[in-house]
Amino acid sequence: MGTGREKLDKLLHNPKITEIMINGSKGTFIEISGKKSKLDISFSPAELEDVINDIFRDAGKNVSAITPYADICMKDGSRANVIINPLARFGSSITIRKFFSKLSDLDDLIEQGTLSRKMADFLIACIKGKLNIIFSGGTGAGKTTTLEMLSKHIPEQERIITIEDTAELKLHHDNIVSLETRIPDEEGKGEVSLQDLIKNSLRMRPDRIIVGEVRGSEALDMIQAMTTGHKGTMGVVHGSSPREVVSRIETMILSSGINLPLYDIRKMIVNSLDLIVQQERFSDGVRRITHITEVKGLYEKQIELHNLFAFIKLGTTPTGEVRGNFKPVIKNYPAFYSDFVKSGLMNDSIFKEGNALNML
User: Fold this and answer.
1) CATH of span 4-97
2) CB burial class (10 A; 0-12, 13-18, 19+) of residue 315?
3) Rounded-to-integer distance, Cα 347 and Cα 338, Å
4) What is the per-residue pLDDT across 169-187, written as a single tens digit (0 to 9) for each?
5) Of 236, 260, 261, nearest to 249 (Cα)?
6) Is the peptide bond before 261 cis (omega within 30 degrees of 0)?
7) What separation in angstroms does the CA of 165 have from each of 35, 194, 196, 274?
8) CATH no., domain 106-351
9) CB-based burial of residue 319 (10 Å sphere; 0-12 exposed, 13-18 middle, 19+ buried)?
10) Taking the complete model, does pTM exceed 0.90, yes or no?
11) Which of 27, 146, 174, 256 is deepest in the core (most CB within 10 A)?
12) Please, which residues have CB within 8 angstroms of residue 104's CB and are 6 or more apart in sequence?
């Protein structure tokens, strides 16, 4: 049936497949339209070793007994995670989330049903207006893709610094520096963390800082960057709702060891973060923005969140397609609305039609 790499390439070249999961020699699974299925394809331990060595050699990295798991970005932009035996008890496991180059701008996301035209216009204004934005959602929700499409509206003259564990953001700007963390060597030396890179980026004259995924104490450094004049900072956080995202950021800042009461941390968050864009992959495989939420301020020592747009699910068709509408929450005009209107970034039409419940 061919070598291990030939088997993998056949799956990579199938445009319908969105994810490939090789569970050692026990089984190979794929995802199509949000649904997983098992294939009648297997990889021997030798084939898996050859595949792993091949894709890591392409990326200039390695995985070994010292570093038995790692993420890499493949040549086509797909993201691969590998974890080897004995950590993976049934044999080395490979998980690949495929990159689709056919997406070129926000119009493609609108056509796919990710968001409405009004939501797109609103988010473009927020990007141009240099709001600090968190993109949140679960694994595979499409939040990084949405960030990439919106980044096309960052003015060309601005200098962008991207900071990631595994460099996968594809931003089409001339003045861009892509930074990537480094794991320690065999002697436990040489590690460079997200926290290190965020701190260093502040010395690189950035107009924008984009953090690929925030999941630890580096949240404090990102929030501090937002509050020290680095407007337009963006980051990605895993979370199932805007409220949970805020709670996670609080927890991550506390994990940094900062000696501040929770109330002061919340003040820091509301003084820096402007917007949360929540995205979810639905049962029909469509990735939709479910909330665009403003971080409004503090009320009775709690962070106050206001939905500006929401996806209202109405039901599911007999064929499994999710039905629903994107609606502006017209009673919640954002605090920056009047400034954006005066500067020509936004007009009255964005919030004119529709209504939605404030579902936080």
Assistant:
1) 3.30.450.370
2) exposed
3) 9
4) 888 889 999 999 988 777 7
5) 236
6) no
7) 28, 7, 12, 24
8) 3.40.50.300
9) exposed
10) no
11) 146
12) none
